[in-house]
Task: inverse folding
């Protein structure tokens, strides 16, 4: 995730982002942000339209994971049921000097990930240092330098043929990660996609990697013929909270329907920091709820893959810093687990392979502020009900099912056995309930 966007948004979304190649900082339009807080404080979860959705078995991944190459990290990734890892393959690192290619560090990452059963998304991007004087902006490939970039693409794809599962062309081009014109980016996408297919015809190619939902950019990219070169589109629905991220995702898919795009959508980045000053920061106590709500909504909307941003915090536990970039991790720097990692793990354990069934659970006198998502027949052998209250107050409900059921704590991963007619306090923190068998769950307002 790297974030300035000069396109005007509705007042509630007025966040202007300034970016460097390593850091993302938010400059908040003060009055717009105050208004956004008023709007979003009254927001509710929007349910996906359409019918049942099957969640892919390899739905879950994590950005910037498997890079320490330590056994402790691989063990965490296995425990958290992570299937995909994403890493950027920087041109400047791979070709530090013209015609001198160095893959050593990436070889270690790739071999480690593959040896532990992880699938890899590799992002191809940015500029070679030898092409530009020091200090010059580098998020751009000029037409005359395009052959050099395509040479880097060819060498990298050939080197990792059969090892990297998916190549993504560039990152967040609709903001400051691309400094050229839109038409130049569209041409880069087409040329890079052609070069990848020429080098490895069987590899999967994604692109776009749009931040937020730039409708005009997407439509022009489609008109230029760049989208048809891709197997899927990549999207980063960052916003102030889960409801905002889902709203952005819905706007994005609405734009795709307007250009008759019916292909897959890969959410290759989404997340929230637990510190710093970014306006979408969340306390560690509320972090698990944000994770469950975001993942549940994206899964039920039919996203093909979701990669959480990201694996580790950058600062030691307890150390404070204003830069929220340091706090996006699921795991602390010392490898201890943040509460959100358990929420991610529970979703990754129970949702893959399941079917989202919007007609379930059966409801009796349930108010609209009680949100429930039912997923049946996951590869874990479990059915899953995820339920929360969009309002801050507690709502008492009765949960009925004849099969044994478990209630899972999203902050600790622990579980408790439920009776066949359990009485539950449903608040803002989602409850995850699992059971096996074909019994139909029912919830009733008390």
Result:
């Amino acid at each position: 995730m790297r974030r300035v966007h000069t396109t005007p948004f509705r007042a509630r979304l007025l966040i202007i982002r300034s970016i460097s190649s390593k850091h993302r900082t938010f400059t908040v339009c003060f009055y717009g942000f105050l208004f956004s807080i008023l709007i979003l404080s009254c927001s509710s979860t929007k349910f996906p339209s359409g019918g049942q959705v099957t969640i892919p078995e390899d739905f879950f991944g994590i950005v910037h994971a498997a890079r320490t190459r330590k056994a402790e990290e691989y063990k965490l990734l296995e425990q958290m049921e992570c299937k995909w890892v994403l890493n950027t393959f920087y041109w400047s690192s791979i070709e530090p000097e013209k015609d001198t290619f160095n893959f050593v560090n990436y070889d270690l990452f790739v071999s480690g990930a593959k040896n532990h059963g992880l699938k890899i998304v590799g992002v191809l991007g940015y500029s070679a240092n030898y092409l530009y004087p020091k200090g010059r902006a580098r998020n751009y490939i000029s037409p005359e330098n395009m052959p050099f970039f395509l040479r880097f693409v060819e060498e990298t794809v050939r080197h990792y043929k059969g090892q990297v599962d998916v190549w993504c062309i560039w990152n967040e081009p609709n903001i400051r990660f691309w400094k050229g014109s839109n038409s130049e980016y569209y041409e880069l996408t087409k040329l890079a996609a052609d070069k990848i297919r020429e080098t490895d015809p069987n590899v999967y190619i994604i692109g776009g990697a749009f931040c937020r939902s730039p409708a005009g950019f997407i439509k022009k990219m489609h008109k230029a013929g760049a989208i048809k070169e891709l197997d899927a589109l990549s999207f980063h629905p960052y916003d102030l909270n889960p409801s905002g991220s889902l709203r952005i995702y819905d706007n994005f898919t609405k734009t795709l329907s307007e250009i008759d795009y019916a292909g897959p959508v890969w959410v290759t980045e989404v997340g929230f920091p637990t510190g710093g000053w970014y306006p979408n920061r969340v306390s560690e106590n509320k972090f698990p709820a944000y994770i469950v709500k975001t993942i549940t909504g994206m899964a039920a909307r039919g996203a093909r893959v979701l990669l959480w941003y990201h694996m580790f915090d950058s600062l030691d536990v307890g150390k404070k810093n204003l830069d929220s970039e340091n706090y996006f991790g699921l795991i602390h720097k010392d490898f201890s687990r943040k509460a959100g990692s358990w929420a991610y793990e529970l979703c990754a354990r129970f949702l893959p392979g399941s079917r989202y069934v919007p007609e379930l659970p059966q409801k009796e006198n349930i108010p609209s502020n009680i949100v429930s998502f039912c997923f049946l027949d996951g590869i874990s052998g479990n059915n899953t009900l995820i339920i929360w209250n969009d309002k801050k107050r507690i709502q008492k409900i009765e949960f009925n099912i004849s099969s044994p059921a478990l209630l899972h704590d999203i902050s600790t991963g622990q579980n408790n056995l439920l009776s066949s007619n359990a009485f539950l306090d449903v608040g803002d923190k989602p409850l995850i309930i699992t059971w096996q068998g074909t019994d139909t769950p029912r919830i009733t307002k008390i």
